[in-house]
Amino acid sequence: MRLFRSGARRRTAVRAGLLGTALALALAGAAQLASAPPAQAASLVEVTGFGTNPGGLRMYQFVPDRLAASPGIVVVVHYCTGSAQAMFSGQQFDELASQLGYIVIYPSTNRPGSCFDVSSTAAMTRDGGSDPQSIVQMVRHVQQRYTTDTSRVFITGTSSGAMTTQLVLAEYPDVFAAGSAFAGVPATCFSTGGAKPGTTAQAGWNSDCAQGRRILTAQQWGDLARATYPGYSGKRPRVQLWHGSNDETLNAQNHTEAVKQWTNVMGISATPASTETIGNRTRARYGGTGTQAPLEANLLQGVSHNLPVDAAAAIAFFGLDQANPTSTPTPSATPTPTPTPTPSVSPTPSVSPTPSASPTATATPTPTPSPTPTSVTPGACSVAYAVNQWNTGFTANVTITNTSSSATSGWTLTWAFPSGQQVTQAWSSTVAQSGAQVTATNAPWNGTIPAGGSVQIGFNGSHSGTNTAPSTFTLNGATCSNG
Fold this sequence. Notes:
single chain; 483 residues; alpha+beta; eleven-stranded mixed sheet; six-stranded antiparallel sheet; 8 helices; globular; disordered N terminus; PHB depolymerase family esterase; Esterase_phb; hydrolase
């Protein structure tokens, strides 16, 4: 279930994430260590020793340079064949964290196929000894080291990560306040009764669930969710669901079944309190109206498993979009970070078809106008182009440096792909492509590049087997040197 979207249309316009920052990869952010050196740019950092880790997962975290006074925590769970690095690079949860001041945890699997365990007997029970328990240990590890708001812990994920999201919400309703699941299945739907995979086997696959053949009553689904934490009678997390009507990997019937389950678990009416159509999306809210209704179900007509991931909408559902970052608090103990390795991509998904990341969020706040581009002196810019690639796709990171003596206000970067590549997703800029020609325009928040300063943008793309790098980049009409 790798995030991948076809670039079949001749002209593709990809809208960037809302908010972001040029994140330099450093060994550890200054906010991360109790005896920290002078401030460094926040980065993705691996943390070890976070618990007994019965699932054998790896833990990564992103702590922004400026945390809210009592920050929330968002757990972002990847898809099959994915990784923490892929979610960090390909979705905007870290960029929003830099602006809103919350901490992001990225669990990463360490087994063939890279799917999370949502099928074994161990995974079906709270503290049963598999991936859900490992994820909660990561949360508690962060809570022990930072003064966080324990009432604002959230989880989101895509595909395998969305399945994990719903299962974890059922098992740990006292830990998580809400979750947002992009193309998942109801909690326990994927159960196979098998042994946990650990780090040596693939996670189990339930074809009946995947193909939408597990159809139960709301009461039956609710009972299955409640059975993961017997005896619990406290408050239940709010749930946001996203699914494509043409999902070929996890049939859209799972969306219907999940609505049954969560309305029953929450004890709310199965009749929507409000329903509206937004483009190709039908949004139904249950148990209340407004951005933070108890249950929100979004069905995207004509969309496959290649589902758009609207990070901004998830963060708004969590209620984290109104945070006001202040100076970073000092953690109470020093975690054990290790440098983040170069993101790698599995070339051959081994469990399921390959989904794609979404190029366009479906609901975003109105951006502020971009400044009018200023001219750039020829040769007064440089561009560094770095790629990680696999058999038919790649991720590119582009660093634009203003080498002139004056600031650039508003910028447009253009280049031509020599091998028929297609951009499928972009962040930190607005990208449009027509044939081989690509144009990237600054986002509202990074339009000014100071003298000697840099901005970093990125995108995912597809290729047919040859992925030759562009030879020339032009910034506001001026040719840049290769950095």
